[in-house]
Amino acid sequence: MRPSTWFEALQQCQQQGKAYVLVTLLATAGSTPRDGGSKMLVSDDTEYDTIGGGHLEFLVTEQARKLLASGKEQQVIEHYPLASKLGQCCGGATNVLFEVMIAHGQHLAIFGAGHVAKALLPILAQLPLQISWVDQRREQFPTEALPNNVKVIVSEEPVDALKALAQSAWVVIMSHNHQLDYALVSAALARPDIDYIGMIGSKTKARRFQTKLSHHGHSQEQIQRLISPVGLTEIPGKRPIEVAVSVAAQVITRLNNQQAQAAMPSKNQAQKDWLHSKQLAKLMAGSL
Question: Is there a single domain that holds both residue 174 and residue 222?
Fold first, then answer.
């Protein structure tokens, strides 16, 4: 369902990991189409809510998409006089705040739509993930509407769907067929950008796959990227929900580690910050 307000749209974009610009009218003077504090949200292809319409909204939307295209999170304030130059006859003026949020949603693909996948998907769909759910059997997918960040892919050749995944996607393999599982694992290992490859199954299955992968030319370094059995070993149980919680916990751990690493400044930047603080301290000491 399409959001009807900027707030609903913001929640949807955050859930989907989609980039957006939140636009806010700040101080206004004279006659303006909307009061200060009015908001709208602009994504790459849609606008939600309104700041009054007209040429002002057209220019603001255009500017918002330019800022999105820059790929940089930032806050920008622009001044707009509502005169004939803008095609507005209000005669007032307004400052507009652009808050640019860039997409950070990790892409994850689940191969298989069995009992465990059905238990797993509602948990993962609440995270900032873009999820592709792949199976050969259309009838296995739920008939009710799925969360907005889940895309169902019915494919006779799931390996082709894996090869077409976005760069640096994560993969969870839990199909109904061991031969298909093996083909998917082999194709995932052939992509060095996929650094999370989890497969459901027993330790015996994992050992057999490792031997077969080695015989088929995969290096030990590649094979070590396969996590099987997938999930946290600290969470016991074989029921679908127990396995699903175990897998979800592992994914959540990786997501948090990824976000912490992204927030951590580089070694060079940390050194620059330290040198800058030392220089600033010297300047302050010299001014006393």
Answer: yes
